[in-house]
Amino acid sequence: MTHTPQQEQDRATLTAYGITEDDLTEALAPAMNRLALMARDQDRDPEEFFTSLPDAFFAALALGYLDARNAGHSGAALQRAAQTSTARALEREGRADLVPLATALSRYDQ
Predict the structure, then answer these.
(1) Which 8-state DSSP code applies to residue 53?
(2) How confident is the model at residue 37 (pLDDT cuts 50, 70, 90)?
(3) CA distance 63 to 67
């Protein structure tokens, strides 16, 4: 598989921070499943819904989860800490407009 220079740079950055592909899968798989449910419930194409969201949204979700997990949280405490960390990451990126979506997503299938 060929990667673009940006993808190679992104992989190098993740590696430098000790983040593996497995970490990203663990962090994002539940969110992707919830986003697909949310899209279907709104009669939207899941792929279209995913691609309509900025990369900063997915980065913040992953960062929030990994930050909470690495702090030793689990279960409901992990979810709460991840939600807080995700909101802070979105706000730092100037994307506070996405905090309500991230919050709703964290509770979507419960």
Answers:
(1) S
(2) very high
(3) 6
Cα–Cα nearest to 106, from 53, 65, 70, 66: 65
Compute φ and ψ for 109, nearest 5 degrees. Answer: -100, 20
Q: List the alpha helices (DSSP H) in 17-54.
A: 21-41, 46-52
Q: How far is CA 78 from CA 42, 71, 84, 99, in A?
A: 28, 9, 10, 17
* 72-110: pLDDT as tens digits: 999 999 989 999 999 999 999 999 999 999 998 888 764
Report the alpha-carbon distance of residue 14 to residue 16 in Å, rounded: 5
Tell whether pTM > 0.70. Answer: yes
Q: What DSSP character marks residue 72?
A: T
Q: Of 91, 20, 37, which Cα lies nearest the Cα of 11? A: 20
The rounded distance, in Å, linking the Cα atoms of 60 and 40 is 23
**At a CB cut-off of 8 Å and minimum separation 6, what does 109 contact?**
33, 34, 37
